[in-house]
């Protein structure tokens, strides 16, 4: 029986997907469970499976094109089956666009200028687009991203050091001149003032969600300063104990947050219009910066995990998040989020809540600063944390009590490993 291939919903916030490439071409045999295409969503690049067997008779959305969730993008059927009814169900304009894009090509997988490389090259969607536009074969580009992934700066580096002949452009030393002569010899044409870049699915989803959050969620903010000397000592001791696993300050903070949420369940909640949902399990999202946006992989059931378990799982999640290889269940279902910008030398910041979560904790850097201890000025390690709360679900005193608990645990970190 003929089967419609539709754009699947691959994340809870996904509204459309972009076909990165088809792994099968028209006329290929397909079995149920085969990977037939790679789809870029607002969260990750995900392999799309076939949910039936037959011949891939028609591709309606080519590589590089987007389609909303539920839109028919192809047809699988036996060679002798009539698929005209399925094709006629697609809007005429969409059919014409897809067929015109595919006409005259030996394969409907991509526009004629797209490169063909052997094997799978790990690259970000932006790097792929830039490489296609400039005719660069990603197979010969050395990636500097996580796991050797090719990212934008790698493609830019190739284009900036090569000429049309593939050789390095010569360096030109201009003749010294006065400022007046320099102005006189300046080109008369004005440089390009700006460049419009299409929003990626991820950037589009982020824009929509943060705008909705700020417009509909009444935020309030609480900030505390934490003494981090003992937490730093704990981290060093754990590095000696487990040299094969790097324990980060983020791991330690997540463990403290998980314990504090277990002791203050009123913070582990969501506002649900006519009720407040209190979660029995602590699922902490970790804000991870990507080249094209932000994603929050989720550490599930943190309240039942040790610090070493959290460190190990967080490392794996972050690596796969940066490679855009998370499964949908690994970036959904968070009940609380931690966002750490300390590695960027940010002192403190306020973060936007990711609904339906009711709070997010923003972490600044650890810095040496003068503080008063027992009436004397000393240099000490301090870190600032800012808690953003949804005032519909959390009151000021509730947030303050929770934040004090996190601060106490970080200042008495042996409780994090007992």
Automatic annotation (TrEMBL):
Enzyme class: transferase
Location of the Lipoyl-binding domain: 2-80
Annotated signal peptide: none
Necessary cofactors: (R)-lipoate
GO biological process annotation, one example: pyruvate decarboxylation to acetyl-CoA
Hydrolase listed as a keyword: no
SUPFAM superfamilies: CoA-dependent acyltransferases (SSF52777), Peripheral subunit-binding domain of 2-oxo acid dehydrogenase complex (SSF47005), Single hybrid motif (SSF51230)
Ranges where the Peripheral subunit-binding (PSBD) domain occurs: 122-159
Single GO term (MF): acyltransferase activity
CDD domains: lipoyl_domain
One Gene Ontology cellular component: pyruvate dehydrogenase complex
Keywords: Acyltransferase, Lipoyl, Pyruvate, Transferase
Pfam families according to UniProt: 2-oxoacid_dh (PF00198), Biotin_lipoyl (PF00364), E3_binding (PF02817)
Record-stated family: Belongs to the 2-oxoacid dehydrogenase family.
Protein name as annotated: Dihydrolipoamide acetyltransferase component of pyruvate dehydrogenase complex
Organism of origin: Candidatus Methylomirabilis lanthanidiphila
């Amino acid at each position: 029986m003929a089967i419609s291939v539709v754009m699947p919903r691959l994340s809870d916030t996904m509204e459309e997907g972009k076909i990165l490439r088809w792994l099968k071409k028209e006329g290929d045999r397909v079995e149920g469970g085969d990977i037939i295409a790679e789809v870029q969503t607002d969260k990750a690049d995900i392999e799309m499976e076939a949910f039936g067997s037959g011949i891939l008779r028609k591709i309606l959305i080519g590589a590089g094109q987007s389609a909303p969730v539920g839109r028919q993008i192809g047809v699988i059927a036996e060679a002798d089956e009539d698929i005209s009814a399925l094709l006629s169900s697609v809007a005429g304009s969409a059919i014409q666009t897809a067929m015109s894009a595919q006409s005259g090509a030996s394969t409907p997988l991509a526009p004629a200028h797209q490169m063909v490389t052997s094997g799978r090259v790990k690259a970000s969607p932006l790097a792929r687009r830039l490489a296609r536009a400039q005719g660069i074969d990603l197979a010969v580009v050395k990636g500097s991203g996580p796991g050797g992934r090719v990212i934008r700066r790698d493609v830019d580096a190739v284009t900036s050091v090569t000429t049309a002949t593939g050789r390095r452009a010569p360096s030109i030393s201009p003749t010294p001149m006065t400022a007046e002569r320099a102005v006189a010899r300046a080109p008369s044409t004005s440089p390009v003032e700006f460049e419009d870049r299409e929003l990626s699915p991820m950037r589009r989803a982020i824009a929509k969600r943060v705008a909705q959050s700020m417009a509909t969620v009444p935020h309030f903010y609480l900030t505390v300063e934490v003494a981090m000397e003992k937490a730093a000592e704990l981290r060093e001791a754990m590095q000696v104990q487990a040299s094969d696993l790097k324990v980060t300050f983020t791991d330690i903070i997540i463990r403290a947050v998980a314990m504090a949420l277990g002791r203050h369940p009123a913070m582990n909640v969501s506002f649900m219009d006519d009720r407040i949902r209190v979660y029995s399990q602590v699922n902490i999202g970790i804000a991870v910066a990507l080249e094209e946006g932000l994603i929050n992989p989720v550490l599930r059931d943190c309240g039942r995990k040790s610090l070493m378990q959290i460190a190990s799982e967080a490392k794996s999640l972050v690596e796969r998040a940066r490679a855009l290889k998370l499964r949908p269940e690994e970036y959904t279902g968070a009940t609380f989020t931690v966002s750490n910008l300390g590695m960027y030398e940010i002192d403190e910041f306020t973060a936007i809540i990711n609904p339906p979560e009711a709070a997010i904790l923003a972490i600044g850097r650890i810095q040496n600063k003068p503080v008063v201890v027992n009436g004397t000025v000393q240099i000490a390690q301090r870190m600032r944390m800012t808690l953003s709360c949804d005032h519909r679900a959390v009151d000021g005193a509730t947030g303050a009590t929770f934040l004090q608990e996190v601060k106490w645990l970080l200042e008495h970190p042996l409780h994090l490993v007992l």
